[in-house]
Amino acid sequence: MAGVIIFVAALLLCAGPAQAREVFQFGGGSGLPWSEQGTLSFINTESAPGSIRPFETEPTHNLILSMRSRGGDVSSLLNTYTLAGEWIGGDSEFVIDGDSTTAFVHPPRIVILGGGGGFWTVPMFFDLGAPFLVERIRFFTRPDHPENQMRGYVLFLNDGTDATKDEVGNLIWTKYRDEIDNLESVVDLDIEPQMVRHIRLRPGTMASNGGLSETWEVAEMQVFGRGFVPTASFVSAPIDLGEPASLGTIRWAWHVDPGAQIVVQTRSGVDDQASVYWRKTGIGTEISPLDERGQPLTADSYNLLRPDKRGGITDDLSNWSPWQTYELEDGRQGTQLLSPSPRRYVQVRVQLFSVGLAGGQLDSLSFDYSQPPVARAAIGEISPSLVEPSTSTLFTYAVRARIDAGQSGFDALRLSTVAQIDSITAVRINRQSVDFSTTLLADGSRSVSFPRIVQDQTLLEVDLLARVFRYGTPFDGSVSDSATDEVALQVSAGDAAADVVGDDLMVRIRLVDELLSDLRVHPNPFTPNGDGLNDLTTVSFSLLRLTTATPVALRIFDLAGRLVRRLEVELAGSSAAQLQWDGRNDKDVLLPPGLYVFRLSIESDGGTQDRVGHIALAY
């Protein structure tokens, strides 16, 4: 039912009558509330309406007073003995009410049942609701009862992470302080800054009979820290789009402080349960995804299991895709949603990582989709899949259409790749050549138009000349109907043509040691005399095996070895590139005719390489 509600709400976000392209949005001014659409972990939705950000605090804010707003609370860890009546009756509230004139007062000499001469004490447990960088803890008596100080106490801390819990979820405490002779009515501890979520204050000492015999009290407990919680997250419930849909562009608005990080991820599936829940059967280490009645475990039934019966949660990779991660900056202008489609269900995960006072905020997130998709699937492969680096190669990009009744089919293929596509040479439908047209788009991708494909199992083949510079270069494709505004359907790798070996959309290059190749200088000689002919010489080359931006330097020397000109450029990974020289030195003075030596240099994580040559300058 929840998924249906989400779907209906998403439709309401679209103004006017329903169209092929629709938008689903979280947050912002018009999106669905984050808090109603998934699970929030240490997320603040109140400070900036429509946005999500990690919980944060400042040194003047007592975290105890706000812990209940984050799901925290105060209680006792004692489960062996009956609690004092005053504690059960609500006197514990006096410790956290912000009023220093009220207090929880522990009466004197409560003897432990069964004898032994010890004294009964009441450990106090505080859950801050989230882990914070704590640097100060205070507790004190009422101002008019300083004599009721806690003479001995032990302070324990826990950060709330799974690493500080045992196998059944019990907290593993770290003792921070063991005080055996406290004379202060106001205990004010400067804590070595550390992540803390849970605090346990045990009156008395660690001795076997270490309870306190005299009256003691706590009027207020105060905990102070600073900055953001280190990790916060939002995980949406599976979003039910109603029927399989083509997934289009995903966008998000955000800002982040230096040092902090925001990670956006998506996955898509065919059912409404993206995880597999496991139960320990009690037979050795055996676990089962079924409950004791043989029914598949769900999130609700898993949480009802005793902690020692829970066998863990894993992703359902049979019916759901793995999480896809996006570059944060790509969200501003929008980027293709990478999870496979068409799919009926989509899930979104946002993780916010903070460091001290540096945090981030996500203001909104949206994606568009179309129903029905132009086709049930577009299966593609490219051949050849192994080529010589930087060499112009004839490739065939094959797409097998899977089209059901009621789907419009497609008449355009969009190709996106970091390889250099020089030209589209031919298009075939079921091995028959057809007319086509191509368009170079603003983002560097190529659009190829052809007669509409409407029949199931139709084979589309596109021949293209391209040069590949990087090992494992993807050739991403999508098919669309130019007559509608429907979202394009992404091409999925697979066996499109039985006579082609590979079944992949990725091209590999033969591994060589070179970083620089295809070095050419043209024209050479050149004549920078201002007549408009051969006034510049171009040093062209190819960069290989690079995945990040890399600086390239061209240094030019005279025959005496003096450096006369330095040209620099930063290139975004493997590609074809060029630098031009106008015959002038670094002071913009035209150099005399003669022979000059150039050195082209690249320095990267893969090593440093130089290429040397000559350039003739003439008038």
Structural class: mainly beta
Q: Which CATH-level-2 architecture of the largest domain?
A: Sandwich
Q: What is the share of helical residues?
A: under 10%
Biggest beta sheet attributes: 9 strands, antiparallel
Q: Per CATH, what is the topology of the largest domain?
A: Jelly Rolls
The total number of structural domains is: 4
Number of helices: 4
What fraction of residues sit in β-strands? over 45%
Count of DSSP strands: 44
- Radius of gyration, whole Å: 34 Å
Mean pLDDT: 87
Task: Categorize the overall geometry.
Answer: globular
**Unreliable sequence segments:** 1-19, 77-85, 113-118
Question: What does it look like?
Answer:
The structure is a single chain. This protein is mainly beta and 619 residues long. It folds into four domains: 150 residues, Jelly Rolls; 172 residues, Sandwich (Jelly Rolls), CATH 2.60.120; 133 residues, Sandwich (Immunoglobulin-like), CATH 2.60.40; 102 residues, Immunoglobulin-like, CATH 2.60.40. It is 4% helix and 47% strand. Strand 43 and strand 44 form a beta hairpin. The N terminus is likely disordered.
Short description:
With 619 residues, this protein is mostly beta strands.
